[in-house]
Design brief:
Shape: globular
Radius of gyration: 21 Å
Number of helices: 12
Structural class: alpha/beta
Largest sheet: 4 strands, mixed
Distance between the termini: 14 Å
Strand content: 15-25%
């Protein structure tokens, strides 16, 4: 499917944010280990979540329900797996990594694999930690990359891990740790990247009755049990950021409901970046509102805690009146695509100047180069950020537009309902 976007000015959008992908993943994984049946209210219904749900069912966890409510029958920390099995996580890195953590509770080998791109994304630090905690870890091909086979049960204990590749490795250990006989004492040898995602993980764990304690660079999880609960998923700041970006470049007003201004989601700081560039932001009783006159100034912005909004910010930067430097970008190379390369490719094609450093990107406005065709290379974030470029300037066609189903199946429909496509 292709979507061609034309230039819009003075938008007036009132949209509900979809449920958080990050929190739905975490709630499913934790509920799967709880001692009884849990209820997940307003879960995200999207491609990545389907991968996690299918993986849990492969491990013997029963998940039932619909787009409004999911019922998860927990296994009390003992996976009912009675034979070796294979889980295909597709393009979902969160699914593969979290399910790798859960596989440490299985007495049979669990092989986790995925798409060709997934097999290029590292899992080595997680595998090394699992092995150090007593698990069996094997790689079918390139060491440190999927397919990876894990066998438990892991006893737990003390282990060290670098924190600067993916916070998902850390979260995977946190989630499984209460079910290990010796719990977990995890020492990070480098500061965690995307640290806000660890707050999401520990927040969900706390909602199910398990605390993570931090002492310096060491995180402690005691052996215990998750209690079943009713967990309500809040709105997704990552997906909402695209609508705010559209408002910034097109001018006008955008209201997004179902967002918590005090959320632990790091991507809520995207609005701080837009405010620094000249937008006006406020929250009221029903949602969050952004207003813009379409005049944007370049800025220097730290985005290490808001990785999934960097492409949208880069798209906004292409319309600013001066250069914008975005720092904290190194780990974007390990996402669904190399997002640093994607930003450079798309924005240079758009006519903007792009300078790429080890951990930063500088974007300068430039002259448009005619009609831009964007191949997102299966990356939903690239497709949505291309929509920002298209609505801000016109003459942008997004190929494989359906790839947004990975995180936000209703994205294009939401734009249609808002009169933008």
């Amino acid at each position: 499917m292709e979507m061609t976007l034309t230039r819009r000015r003075g938008v007036d959008l009132d949209i509900a944010a979809p449920p958080s992908k990050s929190l739905t993943h975490r709630a499913l994984a934790v509920a799967a280990l709880a001692d009884g049946e849990s209820e997940i209210v307003r879960p995200l219904d999207a491609g990545d979540i389907a991968r996690t749900r299918a993986g849990l069912e492969t491990l013997g966890i029963r998940v039932a329900g619909d787009a409004d409510v999911l019922m998860v029958q927990g296994c009390a920390g003992r996976l009912p797996l009675d034979a070796p099995t294979v889980i295909d996580a597709g393009d979902s890195g969160t699914s593969l990594r979290f399910l790798t953590g859960l596989a440490t509770l299985a007495g049979h080998r669990v092989t986790l694999t995925g798409s060709a791109r997934m097999q290029e994304r590292p899992v080595g630090p997680l595998g090394k930690a699992v092995a150090g905690l007593g698990g069996e870890v094997r790689y079918a091909g390139r060491p440190g990359f999927p397919p990876v086979t894990v066998r438990g049960p892991v006893r737990g204990g003390s282990v060290s891990m670098p924190g600067d590749v993916s916070s998902q490795f850390i979260s995977a250990l946190f989630i499984a740790a209460p079910c290990w006989a010796d719990g977990l004492a995890l020492t990070l040898t480098t500061p965690p990247v995307s640290a806000s995602y660890l707050d999401l993980t520990t927040g969900v764990m706390a909602a199910f009755g398990v605390e993570v304690r931090q002492e310096g660079d060491t995180f402690l999880v005691k052996p215990g049990r998750y209690r079943p609960t009713c967990y309500v998923v809040e709105g997704d700041w990552s997906s909402a950021s695209t609508f705010f970006a559209i408002g910034a470049v097109c001018g006008g007003g955008v209201r997004v409901d179902h967002l918590d201004p005090g959320s632990a989601q790091g991507d809520r700081r995207f609005l701080d970046a837009l405010a620094a560039m000249g937008c006006r932001v406020r929250a009221d009783a029903t949602g969050v509102v952004l207003e813009s006159d379409g005049v944007l100034e370049g800025a220097e912005i730290k985005m290490a805690t808001s990785p999934d909004t960097v492409q949208n910010l880069a798209a906004v930067a292409a319309f600013a009146r001066g250069p914008t430097t975005i720092t904290g970008t190194a780990h974007l190379r390990y996402k669904e695509s190399d997002r640093v390369a994607a930003i450079a490719r798309v924005l240079r094609g758009f006519g903007a100047g792009v300078e790429v450093g080890e951990d930063q990107i500088t974007i300068s406005p430039g002259s448009r180069r005619g009609h831009l065709v964007v191949d997102p290379v299966h990356d939903h974030r690239t497709a949505m950020s291309a929509a920002v470029l298209g609505l801000g300037s016109g003459e942008v066609t997004v190929q494989e537009a359906e790839c947004v189903a990975k995180s936000f199946p209703g994205f294009w429909e939401a734009l249609q309902e808002g009169g933008l496509v």
